[in-house]
Amino acid sequence: MGTGPPLSEVLSETPLPVLATRERLQAQGEMTRLFTKRVAARALFRLALVLIGSIAFAALAWADGPWRWEIGMQPPATPVKDRLTAFHDELLVIIFLITLFVLGLLLYVIVRFRHERNPVPTRTSHNTVIEMLWTVVPVLILVIIAIPSFKLMYYMDRVPNPDMTIKVTGHQWYWTYEYPDQSGLSFDSNIIPEADLKPGQKRLLDVDNPLVVPVDTVIRVYVTGTDVIHSWFVPSFGVQEYAIVGRLNESWMKVERPGVYYGECNQICGINHAFMPIKIEAVSKGDFERWLGDAKKKFAHKDEGGDAVRVAAASASATTDAAQPAPAGN
């Protein structure tokens, strides 16, 4: 007979795999706890960075006019833009609360239903109450958003008893401004070439003849076009209207404080689309009357067909020099 190990040694060695399995499970549990804590800490840290960055960029966004690396909206200068900004802020609160709720739900699920606490997961597939909640609650949120949204749309669409009218015509690639209430005063507005910019003027935003409007005046704005579709967009006014050939679209504005405001055509309209900015100077009513007198002399031109006051557009060569586009099609 061969000699073998004593029976006591065999019995003592038998439970070792079981002990090793338990130690592995305990180690996995510790690793899961550490991983969960790290994930939660990283999520909170990133959320704090996002909040700090949003506050910093919001502070920059409330500077006067365009700002370098601007992300937020420009300060409102009209009642329409003021309401748009308020509605935007309300939506931001709603979105932030939804995001916090989803984040909290995810963290709860990660901690509460981790493997250590639930080694054998349940097989629940339906819950009537939860399914009703995640259907009804989003519908109620959309209704809460829709009511002020429709009110704002109707407020923007209806012109409240205008005091004056301005007609804006989009061309490739400049704007024509006309004052029908002032004997047809009309002039063209072209971008200032970069080589001709003076100190303090903004590249790609300053023009030779800005639109001048009085403050505290309800202004009806007609927008049309002569070639392709353009879009007359002034962020601080909350005005964006398409300039379409054969159509006369309508918007309105009431500038509440004097200042210089900028906009751009934000509808791709050809090779020089990026070179047809909008500049508006809002002045007091007295200064506006003085400007009208000077403008009628400056832009005075007797046309053969009538007494319309007009200034010709800048030459095509000046526009080409200002844009310096790469060869491309419309």
Q: Care to describe what's here?
A:
With 330 residues, the chain is an alpha+beta fold. The protein folds into 2 domains: 16-117 and 129-157, Helix Hairpins (Orthogonal Bundle), CATH 1.10.287; 164-323, Cupredoxins -  blue copper proteins (Immunoglobulin-like). It has helices spanning 7-13, 16-61, 79-112, 128-157, 285-298, 316-323, and strands spanning 164-171, 174-179, 185-189, 211-214, 219-225, 230-234, 239-243, 249-253, 259-265, 277-283. A hairpin with a 4-residue loop joins strand 6 (230-234) and strand 7 (239-243). The chain is elongated. It starts with 6 loop residues before the first helix and ends in a 7-residue tail after the last helix. Residues 56-63 and 302-330 have low confidence and may be disordered.
Give the second-level CATH assignment, the architecture of the largest domain: Sandwich
Domain module count: 2
Q: Please state the CA-atom Rg, rounded to the nearest Å.
A: 33 Å
- Helix percent reads 40-55%
Q: So, the CATH homologous superfamily of the largest domain? A: Cupredoxins -  blue copper proteins
| Largest beta-sheet characterization | 5 strands, mixed
User: Helix/strand-derived class?
Assistant: alpha+beta
Average the pLDDT over all residues and give the rounded result: 80
The secondary-structure element order is HHHHEEEEEEEEEEHH
Shape: elongated
Ranges with pLDDT <50 over ≥5 residues?
56-63, 302-330
Strand content: 15-25%
> CATH fold name of the largest domain, please?
Immunoglobulin-like
Count the DSSP helices. Answer: 6
Q: Look at the structure and give the CATH class of the largest domain.
A: Mainly Beta
Number of strands: 10
What's the N-to-C terminus distance? 100 Å
Strand order of the largest sheet: 3-2-1-5-8
